[in-house]
User: Fold these one by one.
Assistant:
Number 1:
Amino acid sequence: MQDQIRISCSRQNLQQVRDFVRSFLLAAHRSELLVNQVVLAVDEVVANFIIHANGEDANQFLDLLLVLADHHLDIEIEDHGSTIFLPLGKVANPDLRAYIQQGRKGGMGMALVSRIMDQVEFFERNSHTVCHLRKTLAS
């Protein structure tokens, strides 16, 4: 089972992405917990591409591909923007107490994505940045 969607790089499209992922997983009869986790992870990555990689330039776009096969959910988010956006290495596990004491906001998203998904990788393909997310699913 697979499906794909293309969106322009505007925050206004984040709800469309969440609805797309939710509908796909519910159609595959996945648990509400899994659906919510994956929606959160995809939303975070897409928001990062929209805001940080593309500066919310609605003339740029992202392609999302969802593939469910052999007890794996694979998600590819391809950025067609003009810059390569490759976050540095493995995401550190942030100290939540320090964040709270400092009153910090932001910077926790990719750590959360790494906790939710079994595999998170960014790479370059055809001069585009791609984020591949993988989640192993119970039988």
Number 2:
Amino acid sequence: MQSRAPAIVNKVWNYAHVLRDDGVSYGDYVEQITYLLFLKMAHEGRTLLHEESPIPDGYGWESLAGKDGDELEVHYRHLLEELGREPGMLGTIFRKAQNKIQDPAKLRRLISLMDGETWLEIDADVKGDIYEGLLERNAADVKSGAGQYFTPRPLIEAIVEAMRPGPDTTICDPACGTGGFLLAAHDYVGDNNTLDRDQKRFQREGALRGVDIVDGVVRLCAMNLYLRGIGGAESPVTADDSLRSLGSARYDMVLTNPPFGKKSSYTVLGADGRAASESQTYERDDFWATTSNKQLNFLQHVKSLLKIEGTAAVVVPDNVLFEGGAGETVRRRLLREYDVHTLLRLPTGIFYAQGVKANVLFFERKPASETPWTTKLWIYDLRTNQHFTLKQNTLGADALRDFVSLYNPGDRHERQESERFRAFDYEELAARDKANLDIFWLKDMSLEGSEDLQPPDVIAAEIAENLEAALEQFGEIHEDLRLSSETSP
């Protein structure tokens, strides 16, 4: 079966190109693949394995056979509408589904392509690789804007390796995108542990939880998990606004890359009692600070999701490290009440969204204490004098191996400093202006003279990123001034 995998991948990719030339985006193509793959696999489960199909009678794969032209298009549209009303995993995958392939002949060709393979015979990893390849191509499609939901896989795998989830670890991603963190954690547990029957079932049905606000992305995530055998009758991922409420569940681990970009249209009212003029507000008494900054609100949400002794790894933009006001409040409270032990400064040029300067913040929830829980913050600088692009010089596992080694997952209390890895005591951090964690110490060689100048495309990309970052900061200053003037007596 493995020997057939490349041929199947080529078939799927080649047809993606055909439809792309016909005006169907990669995103639309991936959605249609999602619908048809689910129908085909449910059909195979019923006919080959004699399993009970989740698909209602009259709307399964077999209902597409023999139909063509307008009859096929009309039936397929009704099928998508009907399945979108179903509960559980089925309803999650088909929620608000639409047929984006308007040419019935192209739709018939895609159905025939899917029908030519027995997908249940294909190894779960191979099916997953096919689908993951489609998701990555969709992320790289600039026009679709899907890159904001796609975190580089080498980065995800390095974070998971540092965090070391176990067979009984409950894991949440409150901004799950297409499920990269959840899948990497699932794979890590399976690859590094001998699981008994109960643990296998738990990994399949209870270990993972994902939430995302975008319906289409949740669909892709659910299918990504389903192709690897994750999920039962109930979907492990749901479409919702994570920030709306905390909910009742707490987790051993939170792994997430929340959305970057503009401020939210909602302001989350924290326990600080600060007034907000916006009519669209959430009340979260578990939040320390009131702000419309999405990244700060996600950071506050993540800290609340953790069980005592629970651990988190959160991708955050630079402004979370130095912003005043609500940002300072959140940083100081986090340093005192949680063990904020590691910060990974990420290089530029690794995200599909432009202008991103990001970091990964690692911390652990602790019980209430009179003394600060953070003793040392270890910072690894993978940004200074590092230059990556999305095509010519991509971020790979090799670039992150030194970080994982120095992170020392086996015993992070026994670490050694290096040129790129330094520790900063709590007292030093707390004494910094606004508890600024945007700390760097390496000499930037690109500033030393013309002999060290980077290639023109790298320089241009960095200029664009700096301009976007500056505009974002100006926008935040303007917003803060507006709020201040509106709330002043």
Number 3:
Amino acid sequence: MSYRKKLVPDLTVDLTVLDGEYAGQFRTRIDEVGERLISVLAPYSDGGIVPLHEGSMLEVTFWDEVSAYTFQSKLIQRINVPVPVFVLELPQMASKIQRRNFVRVAAFYPVLYRAVTREGLTDFKKANMLDLSGGGARFQAGEALEKNSLIYLHLKLPLGEIETPARVCRVDKIEDTSKFTISVEFHEISEKLRDKIIRVVFDLQREMRKKGLI
């Protein structure tokens, strides 16, 4: 199936302005879809419409239940009536990323966790995140956790705070310290929460590409 068939009115998309004064990422929705063009609602920032110029280069990202898709496009036309929309080119192809192939990237967001014990849940303890993916995370803690044990994570991410169960899959002692690196897989996580994490990972990858790190 062509990626274009997945583009439908009201679908949420991320527009990334690749350069210029308004470079950055903006969340919006699809307005209409044609054979060669697509219109999206003009995104807002700081209380006003982002005033992109015709000819601006953009990267468009959207998701379905299985994959994420991204393609580069050009702003062809700005229309203000009846609602402000941007008209974009539709390329023949889009890049596809399978959600099952979760990419892990370095990330350093605040982490709180509590373990599940026979007596119930422990108090929250602080940890330092090391990396993140749509499937799990790795963090540094001041104690060893039992492999295959269940914990509850509280992550403070740019797109909002989330709480999710996670299963400990690996524990490694850091040499010459009393600390441990804990690798976990998200357990029974909702697709809505996983979407938030995947979008954060994509944003981190985009920043790393800009800096030439990947």
